[in-house]
């Protein structure tokens, strides 16, 4: 562990962060070194930038770095990562960063407009914007009660991050079991499904807060079972 002073407080940082870069390499906390610039001389000032926040640093500053994929970030972003401002989400091969300023924007996971904190990928050119409510949805849902013979299924529903047109065609263009509308115009939106029974729902339909029918079965960092999470 390394003790680093920031904003008048001491932050304890680990010497190594595991599974941070896109290919799963570990990043070690080291002191950045000078390197040759394009003129053949040694660059010592403003010679590297954090790949998360973009801030430039002088050589000698501390960084977390993977030399194999040339990925590095400063200790400030390392601290934020430890504070869950950076998450590793199955929907993206890169880490997702929480935008510090609250926004009113359309969520690319559910397709709805939200106000609050959004996560995005700092590497992808056309990065999706994922609202925090969707970013932390459980990977599995159990539809618990029957409501008008619609909200009932014996198997847990798995979270999926797209529904390509070719898959829809191969499954005879299924409709959402909740709202009865199709998925053809929402191919890149997330959804819940049971492939065994070909039971599919839109994300916003499956997580509707107007129906007390859901229970969380599996969600990182949360209890295995929370009965009737959404209530009137």
UniProtKB/TrEMBL annotation:
Residues 36-77, 151-206 form the DC1 domain. It comes from the Eukaryota. Signal peptide: none annotated. Keywords: Repeat. This is DC1 domain-containing protein. It comes from Helianthus annuus. The lineage of its organism: Eukaryota, Viridiplantae, Streptophyta, Embryophyta, Tracheophyta.
């Amino acid at each position: 562990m390394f003790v680093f002073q920031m904003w008048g407080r001491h932050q304890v940082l680990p010497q190594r962060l595991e599974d941070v870069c896109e290919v799963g390499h570990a990043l070690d906390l080291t002191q950045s070194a000078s390197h040759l610039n394009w003129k053949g001389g040694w660059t010592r000032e403003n010679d590297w930038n954090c790949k998360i926040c973009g801030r430039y640093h002088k050589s000698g500053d501390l960084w977390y770095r993977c030399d194999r994929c040339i990925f590095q970030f400063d200790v400030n972003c390392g601290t934020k990562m430890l504070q869950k401002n950076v998450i590793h989400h199955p929907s993206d091969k890169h880490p997702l960063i929480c935008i510090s300023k609250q926004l009113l924007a359309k969520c690319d996971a559910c397709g709805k407009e939200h106000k609050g904190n959004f996560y995005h990928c700092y590497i992808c050119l056309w990065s999706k914007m994922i609202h925090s409510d969707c970013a932390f949805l459980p990977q599995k849902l159990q539809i618990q009660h029957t409501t008008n013979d619609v909200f009932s299924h014996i198997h847990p529903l798995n979270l999926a991050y797209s529904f390509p047109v070719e898959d829809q065609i191969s499954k005879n263009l299924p409709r959402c079991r909740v709202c009865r509308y199709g998925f053809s115009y929402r191919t890149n939106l997330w959804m819940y499904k049971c492939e065994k029974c070909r039971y599919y729902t839109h994300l916003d339909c499956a997580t509707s807060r107007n129906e007390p029918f859901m229970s969380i079965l599996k969600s990182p960092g949360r209890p295995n079972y929370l009965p009737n999470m959404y209530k009137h």
